[in-house]
Specification:
Layout lengths: L2 H27 L4 H23 L1 H13 L2 H26 L5 H23 L1 H19 L2 E3 L1 H6 L1 H8 L6 E4 H11 L4 H20 L4 E4 L9 H12 L3 E3 L2 H9 L4 E3 H7 L9 E9 L6 E4 L5 E5 L7 E12 L4 E7 L4
Parallel strand pairs: 1-2, 1-4, 2-3, 4-5, 8-10
Antiparallel strand pairs: 6-7, 6-9, 7-8, 9-10
Helix pairs in contact: 1-2, 4-5, 8-10, 9-10
Length: 344
């Protein structure tokens, strides 16, 4: 059974009953046999309900559905929100308006409902773009900060973060607080040539990050006004945003870990990806300088790992085959101790 036929049948019954009541009342008022008028009006009402019921039920509903389909989802959402807000405002004002003397107390609550509903819908539709853009911007900022990582000044100056970001290991938005940028600019303006060069290199690296990195870089104005020290600001901001700090500052690393803040240390990452060397293995290294102890020479592998060679002082500026004796892991990195391979 189709929906139209079902509503026609329901309309037939309802209007037939209404016709019977009207015919009975009319017959009684004319002092005639009421059932005759009841039957006649019942037939008329049933015919009316059978023919015209869809125009009061399914036809308006289908027209409304077609209209809703043509309306953009944003406009529809804005209209519904405006209607809800207007009804809330009118509900709040209905009680004081109902206390006014008649007929104002009886009319104004209804008029207020219509007026505020209309105003709510109109304002929301007219300003929907501004309102939705504001909401989307706040939502995006919230997502960025929730998924972001804070970048320390030392990691910017170090420069390796630019290469790390291109590898895809960092999936989150890199957040650079404004106070870190100010510290970097202060270092770049220093009177000390070494500090000035370090600061300028950091600014260049930050510019390189913004242009070449595969992850978004965001300069944030979020600050901790109660603290003036940059490291303390970073730690407190990281605790607020629940995000880690990227740094290679040993002191900041330890203080942050003590306060429960996750730290991504660039030096630890570099040490982790260095090739593993075991005692007894042979290496080829160029000895370039003297060591601290008597007779020692110092060389470096391609990844920057220091190799301290016992008896290597006499081989400075030479490339020699050495045998690894022990490997020492320090805070600054991995150190390899070796001795000259006498078999070569």
């Amino acid at each position: 059974m189709s929906v139209d036929l079902l509503f026609r049948f329901i309309g037939l019954i309802i209007f037939a009953l209404v016709g019977w009541q009207v015919g009975a009342l009319l017959g009684s008022s004319l002092e005639a046999e009421y059932y005759r008028y009841g039957i006649i009006f019942s037939i008329l009402g049933a015919s009316f309900g059978l023919l015209l019921t869809p125009y009061f039920t399914t036809v308006p509903f289908r027209a409304l559905r077609r209209l809703i389909r043509r309306i953009p989802a944003r406009d529809l959402l804005a209209a519904v929100l405006g209607l809800v807000i207007g009804l809330i405002v009118s509900a709040l004002l209905s009680f004081p308006l109902s206390m006014l003397p008649a007929p104002l107390g009886q009319v104004l609550p209804f008029v207020g409902s219509l007026l505020f509903s209309y105003l709510g819908i109109s304002i929301m539709i007219m300003r929907q773009r501004d309102l939705f853009e504001l909401f989307e911007r706040r939502t995006q900022d919230h997502i960025d900060t929730e998924r972001g990582v804070l970048l320390d000044t030392s990691a910017i100056i170090d420069g390796r973060i630019a290469d790390i970001s291109r590898t895809g290991f960092i999936q989150s938005t890199i957040l650079v607080p404004r106070f870190v940028l100010n510290e970097l600019q202060y270092v770049a303006d220093s009177a000390d040539p070494l500090r000035r060069n370090r600061g300028r290199r950091g600014l260049e690296m930050l510019n390189k990050l913004q242009k070449d990195a595969d992850v978004p870089i965001q300069i944030t104005d979020m600050d901790i006004e109660e603290t003036h020290d940059v490291d303390s600001k970073l730690i407190r901001l990281a605790r607020t945003l629940h995000c880690p700090i990227i740094t290679n500052d040993y002191n900041l690393n330890r203080v942050a870990e003590l306060q429960g803040v996750k730290v991504l240390n660039v030096n630890e990452l570099a040490n982790a990806v260095k090739s593993l060397v075991l005692p007894g293995e042979d290496l080829t290294v160029r000895i370039i300088q003297e060591g601290k102890e008597y007779g020692q020479g110092v060389g470096y592998l391609e990844d920057g790992t220091m190799v301290v060679v016992d008896g290597g002082r006499s081989s400075i500026s030479q490339t020699r085959e050495v045998v690894v004796t022990r490997v020492l892991q320090t805070v600054a990195g991995r150190m390899i101790f070796a001795q000259i391979n006498d078999e070569t």
